[in-house]
Specification:
heterodimer; A: 557 residues; mainly alpha; MetI-like fold; 2 domains; two-stranded parallel sheet; 22 helices; 2 strands; 1% strand; B: 238 residues; alpha/beta; 6-stranded mixed β-sheet; 4-stranded antiparallel β-sheet; 7 helices; 33% helix
Chain lengths: 557, 238
């Protein structure tokens, strides 16, 4: 049978992986194609309704939110990066990694936490009233954090690390001679930052801001908790409350235009980043701070960490201890949600890392012709597309294909006289798993591709000449060497799957809760008890990738 | 005992700015069983491309490559590298970093029975003088030791042809001279047909029975060491 198959060109060892990568790329693109199909199904009346009542408000809010978050993350991220690069002071190393901590807090958790912390009868406002001598919220209360400004500030304070990471690397690898030349020409330190360092770092800042804005677009929890009607939220409510698939698909399609625009921006910035990096860099010598400047540096560095991580995480810890003091154990719903989260995240991780390996291997293989190599790279890029697509958009796009699969199964079973009374795929976690794989394939693929790039091609060639086929070489040589990359990919995918909310809300089976959806449900009902436990678990697990990133940062420069 | 290598009028091209550029053009030579040949030339002369074509990593547009009369590569056919029974020593040695010396050398012998495999590995380690280092990992070895492990590993499956890609380029001068003569001794002892590529004249003349000079993808001269020295003198005089 194997000999027969070999006669089919597609099953030659060289093309097998390209075909597999092609299949994965098609699977990733299928929801996007389905989305376009669903959107077109909607009537002209649908479009009219959307354009009059839904899109203008949601679009305007989304644009304002993106602009606002973009400004905040640029300001915080670039400032933080300069603070730990251009200056030297005691504790700088600590601040360098601590500034990454807010990455562990998803946007919906920061909103959930601050809504409780800053509640009119919460601890902060209560303390202020006590200090000022007021007795009730009717006499004194702070402005409501609910609203666009609250959303901008809260999202900005947990998403700035994306800009911080990319910009810090850029500052570190800029030539010291460029900075020194500016100083010799009489430029002040402030002038050096504004006229030299910042313009050179612009491509890196754009890359970081794009990542932060994609996360902003993806958010549905924070927007709902804070009462900001964004396009993502509009998609969710259109489907969940009005069961209007065509309408939701049409809004999703509109969002894709914004995403394409952002990705184009990011791609141009990455290309410019390559040209602005000069080889054989001597990193700049940081200025040693003295006296009160050290205190100032610390205050400036600690503020984003405090608001983005310490305050919310600390508050969650207090809430959890309070709850533990009130009753024994945790509810069955929390335990079940934890079990569900662990199970589905584990399965999703195994699937995603395996597919990521296939796609990365297909793109990397020693090939017969240059054409196939560029095909492999194309499939790799297509397979990574899912990361840019918000969870809600992905979920809407998957509904059509999943329903088709269910109808296909029903037809096949019908031939055997077996009557199907329920949706098999759409009603199970299969659809959710598919969404996770598509959404996070880019993480696995990227990590493994980077690992493969460190293995010289001669290693594979040696194995082939020693009689091993391409597949056996992958198994005996590359996979053992890729273990660190695969473990790192698995960790990142696991944590991201565990934190994921938008797609989970839309595709989960009935009565299936994860930690994220449990928290969402609690917050929607204005209850924070068990939600706080779920939130703390998510944040603590979210620290693992932050630790990985911090260590990778230390190694890279 | 090794095989006879015949390379007939091969051409290998790469795409360059929407055209095809010939990296190897009309190259022909042969090596009888047990002979050591060497392709000499500057970087970009096409010598490594010839080696990689014989190994099966590069397709050819014309000509044929045969080993012991069996067609390995033509314009229409290419036997995969793992089925050619060709050994190769890479310029960077390409030792498997996660395997120790013993496992590296035994890598291509998985089809043998464990005891037979162990005996073969021990024999080869003794041949290259590394019996005491069988438990070490590549990063724990010197450049010269890594080169010997690479040689033992490539000889272990008893290939028909052994290809050597600049085997001494990563070594210091003293180690190079010492290992060059050792390598020739080992190859003559095992009677393996070998083809080496290098840009170093001294290495070529020390190692090979036949030497070919390549320039701009063409084999300008192929002959014995003696005729090659005469050619080199003549070319230098012109």
């Amino acid at each position: 049978m194997v000999n027969v198959l070999k006669h089919f060109a597609i099953f030659e060892s060289g093309k097998r992986y390209t075909f597999a990568a092609f299949v994965v790329a098609v699977l990733v693109c299928a929801p996007l194609l389905s989305l376009m199909f669903e959107a077109v199904q909607g009537s002209i009346g649908h479009w009219g309704h959307l354009l009059t009542y839904v899109l203008p408000h949601a679009l305007w809010n989304t644009i304002l939110l993106l602009l606002g978050v973009g400004f905040v993350v640029t300001f915080l991220g670039t400032g933080a990066a300069w603070l730990v690069t251009a200056y030297d002071y005691p504790g700088r190393r600590f601040l360098t990694w601590a500034l990454l901590l807010p990455l562990a807090v998803p946007t919906y958790i920061i909103a959930f936490t601050y809504l409780d912390i800053l509640h009119p009868i919460g601890p902060i406002q209560g303390l202020i009233r006590d200090v000022l001598g007021y007795s009730s919220p009717r006499e004194f209360r702070l402005p409501d954090i609910r609203g666009l400004w609250g959303a901008i500030l809260l999202m900005g304070v947990v998403l700035y690390p994306y800009v911080y990471l990319t910009t810090r690397f850029m500052f570190l690898t800029q030539a010291a001679s460029v900075v020194e030349a500016a100083r010799v020409l009489g430029e002040t330190p402030r002038g050096v930052f504004l006229r030299v360092a910042l313009p050179l770092a612009r491509p890196a800042i754009v890359v970081g801001v794009t990542l932060a804005l994609l996360e902003t677009l993806n958010d549905v929890g924070a927007a709902e908790f804070l009462g900001v009607k964004t396009l993502t939220l509009a998609i969710y409510t259109t489907w969940v409350t009005r069961s209007d698939l065509a309408g939701a698909a049409q809004i999703a399609l509109s969002m894709l235009f914004i995403i394409v625009f952002l990705l184009h921006f990011e791609k141009r910035a990455r290309q410019r980043q390559r040209y602005s990096l000069v080889q054989r860099m001597r990193p700049m010598t940081p200025t040693v701070l003295k006296g009160r400047h050290i205190a100032l540096a610390w205050v400036l560095g600690v503020i984003p960490i405090a608001f983005g991580f310490l305050l919310p995480a600390g508050y969650l810890v207090v809430q959890v201890f309070k709850r533990m003091g009130q009753q024994t154990g945790f509810s069955t719903s929390l335990i079940q949600a934890s079990f569900n989260t662990l199970t589905i995240a584990s399965v999703a991780t195994v699937l995603t890392v395996t597919l990521g390996l296939i796609v990365a291997w297909a793109a990397r293989r020693v090939r017969d012709s240059a054409n196939e190599q560029s095909l492999g790279k194309l499939f790799s890029r297509l397979a990574s597309l899912g990361y840019a697509v918000p969870g809600t958009v992905l979920a809407i796009g998957l509904l059509g294909p999943l329903l088709l699969i269910d109808q296909g199964i029903e037809w096949v079973l019908g031939l055997a006289q077996y009557k199907v009374t329920t949706l098999i795929v759409l009603g199970s976690t299969a659809g959710l798993l598919m969404a996770y794989v598509i959404r996070f394939l880019a993480i696995a693929n990227g990590s493994i591709e980077a690992g493969l790039a460190r293995i010289p091609p001669s290693i594979e060639q040696a194995s082939r000449l020693l009689g091993e086929s391409s597949s056996r070489t992958l198994w005996r040589v590359h996979i053992p060497l890729l273990k660190p990359a695969m473990i790192s990919a698995a960790l990142l995918v696991f944590v991201d799957t565990m934190k994921e909310l938008p797609a989970t809300l839309m595709l989960r089976p009935i009565n299936f809760e994860t930690l994220a959806t449990l928290l969402y449900g609690e917050a929607s009902r204005g209850m924070y008890e068990e939600g706080a436990v779920a939130a703390l678990m998510i944040v603590l697990l979210g620290l693992l990738p932050v630790i990985l990133l911090a260590r990778a940062q230390q190694r890279s420069v | 005992m090794s095989g006879k290598l015949e390379v007939n009028d091969i051409r290998v091209s790469y795409p360059l700015k929407s055209q095809l550029k010939a990296a190897v053009n009309g190259v022909s030579f042969s090596l009888e069983s047990g002979q050591i040949g060497c392709l000499l030339g500057a970087s970009g002369s096409g010598k490594t491309t010839v080696l990689r074509s014989i190994a099966g990593f590069e397709p050819i547009e014309q000509g044929t490559i045969t080993i012991d009369g069996e067609l390995m590569t033509s314009a229409n056919q290419r036997i995969p590298p793992e089925d050619r029974h060709v050994g190769m020593m890479f310029q960077d040695y390409a030792l498997f970093p996660h395997l120790d010396v013993k496992s590296n050398v035994g890598f291509g012998l998985r089809r043998l029975k464990p005891q037979t495999r162990e005996e073969r590995v021990d024999l080869l380690l003794e041949l290259v003088g590394l019996s005491d280092l069988s438990g070490r990992y590549p990063h724990e070895l010197s450049g010269g030791q890594q080169q010997r492990v690479a040689l033992a590993r490539s000889l272990a499956p008893d290939p028909d042809i052994l290809l050597l890609d600049e085997p001494f380029s990563n070594l210091d001068l003293d180690t190079r001279e010492h290992l060059a003569s050792e390598l020739r001794e080992i190859l003559k002892q095992t009677q393996h047909t070998a083809l080496m590529v290098t840009h170093n004249h001294d290495e070529a003349f020390a190692m090979a029975d036949y030497v070919g000079f390549m320039a701009d993808g063409k084999l300008v001269h192929w002959g014995t060491v003696k005729t090659m020295r005469q050619f080199a003198k003549k070319s230098g005089a012109q």
